[in-house]
Structure formats: structure tokens, C-alpha cells
Design a protein that fits this description.
By secondary structure, this protein is α/β, with parallel strands linked by helices. Helices cover about 45% and strands about 10% of the residues.
Length: about 200
């Protein structure tokens, strides 16, 4: 979720883009570190729009949030549960989510794709094993995983944490993972991201 300090004079993604274009390199955004998905989310926004805003990498999202609340940085991307809680308390302004569609956890917050078609960066996880696992074992693990992901209690826990389950096949996950790794590799190269 893209969030802004309430004193930063923007109320929407188009307004932020316009404001940053009019004030290049004057403002800063924070992230939980170089190469993290929040960092790369802003780098994708910069590439897509040409805005110039300084990156301030922190050692985790919590210190970045502290400085956002204090006004030392103006905007940042953060995971939805943390960002949404701060927005609901009026401590930050929620501008957009980075999923392709609006989040069920925050249906009143637009998706970045509403302003920048095709913009999508999400955090995800998958079940993996060592190379060379027998195909039968892979299929059995996939069947167990699909059964677990269909459990109503697990789905509710995911939703409570602003996440969704994604039942898929081993081939579907492999394709998705390859696409994600290629996208992030391009962003990392262009951004010059590194891990300290």
C-alpha cells in the first residue's frame, strides 16, 4: 500500500505524480531496505512516471514508518496490515494498493493499476522443495497444499492479514515464479538496488 504523511499535500496517486514532477528530487520515500518489494514498488512507479524522489533505505519497515509519521520522509510503500492500521488511525493517508485490483481489506483504496495500467507488485510465498523431487511426490504435496488452501479457517486467517490464498499447480507456480523473478531482476538492475 502506498501511504503518505498527512502533511504532504497530495491526496491521490495522480496528484502525487504531478506534485513530484513539479518538485524533482525535493522529497524522499522510505523503504525497509534496498531491494525489498516496497523499495522496488517505488522504483517501478519512478520508471513508469519519470518522477524523481530520493530513496531512504531503513533496516526494516518499522523505522521507515516512524520517520514517515514524523514527516522526515513523505511517502512509502508498506505491507497492507501495517499501512492500513496507520491509515485507519489517521496517522497516514492511504493512496493506493499495488495489487492488480483493490484489496478486499481496503476496498475504498484504489489500485495503482487504476492510474497506471499493468502496475502490479505483490508479496507472495510458495511451497518449494529441493531439485529433483520425484513427480509423484510433487503431485502429492500439491494435493495436500490445495486441500489446506481450501480450508475456511485458513482462508479467514489470510483475509484477516489482508492476504489471499492462491491455489495453483506446480507448473502454474513455476511460470509465475519465473515471471516474477524476471520482473524483479529488471527493477533491481535499473534501480541499482543492493543488499547491505
Amino acid at each position: 500500500m502506498l501511504i503518505a504523511n498527512p502533511d504532504f499535500p497530495v491526496r491521490s496517486v495522480p496528484g502525487m505524480i504531478e506534485y513530484l514532477r513539479a518538485n524533482p528530487r525535493r522529497y524522499s520515500y522510505g523503504s525497509g531496505g534496498s531491494g525489498t518489494s516496497p523499495h522496488l514498488s517505488m522504483e517501478l512507479l519512478k520508471q513508469r512516471t519519470g518522477v524523481e524522489i530520493q530513496h531512504v533505505p531503513y533496516r526494516g519497515g518499522a523505522p521507515a514508518m516512524v520517520d514517515l509519521l514524523a514527516g522526515r520522509i513523505q511517502v512509502m510503500f508498506d505491507n497492507i496490515p501495517t499501512a492500513l492500521a496507520a491509515a485507519r488511525e489517521g496517522k497516514v493517508r492511504a493512496l493506493a494498493v499495488t495489487s492488480a485490483e483493490r484489496s478486499p481489506a481496503a476496498p475504498d483504496v484504489p489500485a495503482m493499476a487504476e492510474f497506471l495500467p499493468g502496475f502490479e507488485i505483490t508479496s507472495w510465498g510458495g511451497l518449494v522443495g529441493p531439485p529433483g523431487l520425484p513427480a509423484g511426490m510433487v503431485q502429492r504435496m500439491n494435493a495436500f497444499t490445495l486441500r489446506a488452501l481450501a480450508d475456511r479457517h485458513l482462508i479467514e486467517v489470510f483475509q484477516h492479514n489482508a492476504a489471499t490464498t492462491w491455489p495453483t499447480t506446480p507448473a502454474g507456480f513455476a511460470t509465475f515464479r519465473a515471471e516474477q523473478e524476471a520482473m524483479f531482476a529488471r527493477l533491481i538492475r535499473v534501480a541499482g538496488a543492493h543488499v547491505d
